[in-house]
C-alpha cells in the first residue's frame, strides 16, 4: 500500500463528501449571489440602467466611495503603525493591546453606532457644544465615517501583525547596520515584504467599509440623497417595494464583493509563494567559523 | 561604530548563544512613535466611545437597568438571538469542517474557485445578503416555492434568522480549520493505519483531536459574529415582537423612540457578552497554539 492511499478514503466516500460540500456551498453561497443579479435584471436591462441613474442612487454611490476613501487610509496608517510596534518589539501589555485592537470585531455593529450617538448625539457628551457651534456629526456624514472607521478598525492591523512577526527583524536590522534611516528601512525593506499582506488587508477593509450596514444605519438618520450610503439606499428601496431598483444597487455591491474575492485570492497566492520562497532560503544563523570573520570586516 | 550596531554585533557570548533579546529588539527605530500613535488612535476611535456606553449605563438606577434588560420582549429577543446563533454555529461547525476537509484533502475541478468563494460572506455586504436570501426563501422564491407547500416556511420567521446566520458564519469555521488540517502530520495517520485502525478510527481518534481546538475556535467566532449580526437578519426575520425580533433590532427600535437609556442598557448586556466571547476565543487560540506547538516538538 502506498503512502498516499493510506491517507485517503474509498472513492465513494470521497465523492459523497465532495458532493455534499459542493451542494452546501451552492445553496448557501452561489444561489444568493445569483439571485442578486437575477432579481436586478428581472425587468430587463433598461429598467436596470434606469434604476442606477436615479440621482439618489448616485448620491449614495458617491457617499459610499467617499466614506471608504477616508476610512480605509486612516485604518491603513493605524494598521501599519500598530503592526510595527507589536511585531518588531517586545513590551509589557503587548497581548492586551492586541486584544483591544481586535475588540471592534466582536462588538455588534449596532452597538458601534450607538456609542457614537452617546458621544456626539444631541443628548451625548459633546452634543450641546456641537449644537452651539452648529457642527453636525450624528445624522450627518462625519458620523457615518466614524462608525465605518470603527467597524473596519482591526482589518489591516490584524493581517499585518502575524505576517511581520513571521518575517522577523533580521532584514530591518541589516538595513540599519548598513546605515539606512528608519524611514528608508521601512520603505525599501519592510514595505516590499509586506506588500501582499497589505493589499489583502486593504481590500477586505474596503469591502467592509463600503458594505457596512448596522453601524451606519444607527448614525445616518436616513436622509435620502444626503446621508444614505449604498447599503442604506438598498434598504430604503427594498422597504418601498422597489425590488428591481433595490437589487440593481445591490448588484453593484455584489460586483464589488466579486472583485474583492479575486484580488484577495491573488494576494493570498502571492503571499503563499513568497512564504515558500522564504522557507527555502538557507538558514541565516552564521556558523561559528564565520562569526569572527564577520566581526573583523566591520 | 554606533552604540546600536555594537549592541547587535559586539555582544557575542563565548557559548555562541542568541544575542540578548532586549538589545536586539530595540535597535529598530520608531517604537515610541508607533506605539504612541496606536494607543492614541485606539483610544480615540474605540476606547473613549465605548466608555461612553458604560458611563451612560451608570447614570441609570439599578431598577431602571434591570427593568430595561429583563422586559419580556427583550428576553424573547435574547432567546432568539442566542438560540439561532447557537444552531447556526453548530451547522457551520459540521459543514465548515466538511468544506475545509474537502478543500484540503481532495482535488476536484474548480477547487480554487470554491476556495475563493468561501470568503463571499466576508465580502458581500450584509444588507445584500439579507435581501437576496429573502428573495430565495420567500413563498415565491427559488427555494421557498417548493418548501412552503410542504408546510416549511423559511422566511419571515426564526428559520430565516438561522439561515442568514449560517451564511454569515461559514467562513469563520472553514478558515480556522483549514490551516490546521493542512499541518496535520501524515506520519501519525500512517502509523494509525499500520497499527490496524480503520479510516474512521483514524479520523475520530487521531485527526479530529488535533483539529478540535481550531474547530471550537471557529465555532466561537461564528457564534460571536452571529450574536451581533444585524444587516442580513432584519430583512429575512419578519421582525415580529416576541417571535422573530433579534436583540440588535431592539436597540435600534429603542433608539428610534428616543429611549437612549433603554437602548444603552440592552447594548451593555450585549457588549458584556461580546467581551466574554472575545476572552473565550483568545483562550481557545492560545490552547490551539500550545497544542500545535507541542505536536511539533
Note the main attributes of this structure.
heterodimer; A: 298 residues; mainly alpha; 15 helices; globular; disordered C terminus; B: 297 residues; disordered N terminus
Written account of the structure:
The complex is a heterodimer of chains A (298) and B (297). Helix content of chain A is 78%, strand content 0%. Chain A has 298 residues and is an all-alpha fold. In chain A, helix 4 (55-88) packs antiparallel against helix 11 and helix 6 packs parallel to helix 12 (214-220). Chain B has 297 residues and is an all-alpha fold. Helix content of chain B is 77%, strand content 0%. Chain B has 15 helices and no strands.
Q: Which oligomeric state applies?
A: heterodimer
Give start-end ranges of low-pLDDT stretches of chain B.
Answer: 1-25
Tell me the strand percentage band of chain B: under 5%
Helix content of chain A: over 70%
Rg over C-alpha atoms of chain A, rounded to the nearest angstrom: 25 Å
**Strand-and-helix sequence of chain B, N→C?**
HHHHHHHHHHHHHHH
Number of helices of chain B: 15
The residue fraction in helices of chain B comes out at over 70%
Arithmetic mean of pLDDT of chain B: 87
Number of strands of chain A: 0
Shape of chain B: globular
Rg of chain B, nearest Å: 25 Å
Largest sheet of chain A: none
SS element count, helices of chain A = 15
Looking at the structure, what is the overall shape of chain A? Answer: globular
Structural class of chain A: mainly alpha
Question: Largest contact between protein chains?
Answer: A-B, 107 and 100 residues
Distance between the termini of chain A: 57 Å
Q: Determine the strand fraction of chain A and express it as a percent band.
A: under 5%
First-residue to last-residue Cα separation of chain B = 40 Å
The number of strands of chain B is 0
